[in-house]
Amino acid sequence: MGLEAYFDDIGPATMGLIGAVLFVIPEPATSALGAGLLLLGGSWWFYEWKR
User: Fold this and answer.
1) Residue 45 contacts residue 13 (beta carbons within 8 Å)
2) Neighbours of 25 (CB within 10 A)
3) Which of the residues 11, 12, 28, 41 has the least number of beta carbons within 10 Å of its own beta carbon?
């Protein structure tokens, strides 16, 4: 079994984590980029869920 089962979750989780960090930075451009990455990572995560 191993880590192969978790490889599909690494991409969306990393995108969400980077988006959350960028969202917290008080610069408007990075906050907008962070919010976009959070939305994209969350939708990607739901797409991969139970797949």
Assistant:
1) yes
2) 12
3) 28
Task: Give the burial class of 3: count Cβ atoms within 10 A of its Cβ; 0-12 exposed, 13-18 middle, 19 or more buried.
Answer: exposed
pLDDT, one tens digit per residue, over 5-22 is 777 778 888 999 999 999
Phi and psi at residue 26, to the nearest 5°: -75, 10
pTM metric for this prediction = 0.80
Q: Provide the pLDDT for residue 1.
A: 61
| Each residue's pLDDT tens digit, 23-37 | 999 999 999 999 999
Contacts of 34 by beta carbon, 8 Å cutoff, 6+ apart = 18, 19, 20, 21, 22, 23, 24, 25
